[in-house]
Specification:
- The protein is α/β, with parallel strands linked by helices and 249 residues long.
- It contains 12 helices and 8 strands.
- Helix 11 links the parallel strand 7 and strand 8.
- The protein is globular and about 45 Å long.
- The two termini are 20 Å apart.
- The structure holds 2-phosphoglycolic acid.
């Protein structure tokens, strides 16, 4: 079974609601592509205006984070039900910026993963090594650890629907895309790890993205790799270039 490609934009902390609406209006015709899932992961305050602006298009809207409790005294957090109430289908979890600046760990990511599945939200779980880890030759061990902890107690049926984004930290926002070979190698290892945790059928269905300075030039080769099912795109998702990335073929 061929896996459907998924190209997601990660807006990070960019775009006020009014800027967001303008951007969606510009990108709407450019990202039309029936063969690819197109997701805009946007700041919480932009979710509703982006959904309105994206009506009638193929754009699906995702969140950039979510808390693992149902509700209550967690000032500043967004609950899964708040997301599903407005129709959010995807959530980015464990982005390296959240791990680095907001004390996110693989354990908290795991709690969020379980909560997302419970609410029918598809997680886009990020993993990735630092430059030091790559140079020390521990990339695969590190990524395996992130994936194993992230998927603790996730069932095979849930895992099949998940998305994993492999994002080497040294490639994020640096303009330094991993080579096609480096990206494919790690994505293949992630799929192998999923096969070990679950089985071959689960590994064959789960979608694995590459992220880190993806642009219109690098996307075609990256997305053509056997184990790369699309991309998580930061900087270039805020520009018309995103249309070219979605229509990479
Ligand atoms: P970038 O960001 O494309 O700007 O490198 C990717 C990401 O952090 O998801």
């Amino acid at each position: 079974m061929a896996r459907r490609k998924i190209v997601a934009g990660n807006w990070k902390m960019n775009m006020t609601p009014s800027e967001a609406v303008k951007l969606v209006e510009t990108l709407k015709p450019l990202v039309a592509n029936e063969e690819v899932d197109v997701v805009f992961c946007v700041p919480a305050i932009d979710i509703i205006p982006v959904m309105e602006a994206a009506k009638g298009s193929n754009i699906q809207v995702g969140a950039e984070n979510m808390y693992f409790e149902e509700k209550g005294a967690y000032t500043g957090e967004i609950s899964p039900a708040m997301l599903t109430d407005v129709g959010v289908k995807y959530v980015v979890l464990g982005h390296s910026e959240r791990r680095e600046y907001f004390a996110e760990t693989s354990e908290t990511v795991n709690k969020k993963m379980l909560k997302a599945f419970e609410h029918g939200i598809t997680p886009i779980m990020c993993c990735g090594e630092s430059l030091e880890q790559r140079e020390q030759g521990i990339t695969m061990d590190w990524i395996r650890q992130q994936v194993k902890v992230g998927f603790l107690n996730v069932t095979a049926d849930q895992a099949k629907t998940a998305v994993i984004a492999y994002e080497p930290i040294w490639a994020i926002g640096t303009g330094k895309t991993a080579t096609t070979e480096q990206a494919q190698e790690v994505c293949a290892e992630i799929r192998k790890c999923i096969a070990e945790i679950y089985d071959d059928a689960t590994a064959a269905e789960i979608r694995i993205q590459y992220g880190g300075s993806v642009n219109a030039k690098t996307a075609p080769d990256l997305f053509a790799q056997a184990d790369i099912d699309g991309g998580l795109v930061g900087g270039a998702s805020l520009k018309e270039e995103f249309g070219k990335i979605v229509n990479y073929k």
